[in-house]
Amino acid sequence: MRFAFDILTQVKFSHSYFSDGVFAGLDVNMDIATKKMMDNLGLMYKPFKGGFYILFDRHIVSTERKREDVLTEKVIFNFTLELKDPLFYNYTANLPQQIDKSIYYFRNSLKTTPGVANPLHNDEFVNEKDVVNLSDKRHHFFKKPFAKLSILVHPELETHYAINFDVRQTYWRYILVSDYLHKLSNPAIIDDKDGNIFGEQFDLELPDTKRVRGFVSANKMALSQRQAKMFRLVENYETGAAKHKDVIGALPYPDVRSISRLSVNNTNPANYSDIFIH
Q1: How many Å apart are CA 103 and CA 26, to the nearest integer?
Q2: Is residue 200 a contact partner of residue 218, using CB atoms and an 8 Å limit?
Q3: Among residues 39, 42, 87, 152, which is most buried (max CB within 10 A)?
Q4: CB-based contacts of 53: which residues, under 8 Å, 6+ apart?
C-alpha cells in the first residue's frame, strides 16, 4: 500500500511576545467525529511546533487524487485547544473580561487572501470579538477548554491559516528599594543607546509603609521574551549634560511571572509592570 501525503491546509499559532513569533503553548485535540471523518477521507493530522497540518493521501482506493478533489467534501473538523502556559494571561493583550466564563472560538471564513496565513479570527490579532460565552447552547463541553477551532472544508479552503496573539503593553516602573539607592544624588534612568530619559520620578509607599523612590516610563512598552532596549541607572544626571555616573549598567526587565498590585495616585495596577531594584 502506497502513501503519499500533501498539505490540505495548515494552522500556525503566533504570539508577538516571543522573539521568533512562534507560540508553542497550546495542545490541540480533535473530537471523535472529526477523527473518524479524517480517517474515512484519507486525511492525517500532523502537529509541529506552534501549529499543525492536515494532510491528504494522494493515493486512496488505488486512485490518484488532487487537493481540489478533497475540497469538494464540505465537512467541518472540530478541535479544542488547551493552554499549557500558565503565564499566557500575564503577557497577552486584548483578553476577555470574564476569562472563567468564556472561551475563544476560531473558525475559517471565505474572506481570505491567497498566499498568506489568513487569520482564523476577526481582526489582525485575537481579541474579545473572538470570544463566546460558555452559556451559549451551540457549544457543549464536559471540561472548559481554552478555545474551540472549526475548519470548514470547502473549495476556497486556503493552504495557510493563523491564530495571532498580541503582546501586552504596560507602563514600566523601576522601584528603588535599598537604602543606598535613596542616597544617590540626582538619579535618573536613561536609555543605554541614545541617553534619553526613561521617565518621570515618583514616590511610593510600599505595603510595609516604607516610602521609596521610583521611575515610571513615559509611554506603555511592550513586554517581550527578549527585550530590544537596555536601560541604566545613573546619578548626578543633568538634562543635556554628557557626564553622569553609572550606578547599575544594565537594569533588569519586567518579570511576566509577577503582576503589579501597587496603586500610585489611584492608577490601575494592571497597567503597570514593576521592577524592584535592591
Answers
A1: 14
A2: yes
A3: 42
A4: 7, 8, 9, 10, 44, 45, 46, 47
Q: Coil, strand or helix: which one is 76? A: strand
pLDDT classification of 224: cutoffs 50, 70, 90: very high
**Ramachandran class of 72: left when φ > 0, alpha when ψ lies in -120 to 50, beta otherwise:** alpha
First-residue to last-residue Cα distance in the chain: 67
Q: Decide: 119 and 163 in contact? Cβ < 8 Å.
A: yes
| Arithmetic mean of pLDDT over the chain | 89
134 near 101, Cβ under 8 Å? yes
Contact 14, 164 (CB under 8 A): yes
Phi, psi dihedral angles at 36 (to 5 degrees): -65, -45
Give yes or no for residue 114 having a pLDDT over 80: no
Give the cell for residue 97: 473580561
Q: For the whole model, what pTM was predicted?
A: 0.89
- Produce one character per residue of 211-225: b if its CB has 16 or more CB atoms within 10 Å, e if not: ebbbbbbeeebebbe
The neighbour count for residue 155, using CB atoms within 10 Å, is 10
- For 63-84, letters b (16+ CB in 10 Å) and e give eeeeeeebbeeebebbbbbeee
How far is 75 from 151, CA to CA, in rounded Å?
A: 8
Q: 236: alpha, beta or left, given left = phi > 0 and alpha = psi -120 to 50?
A: left
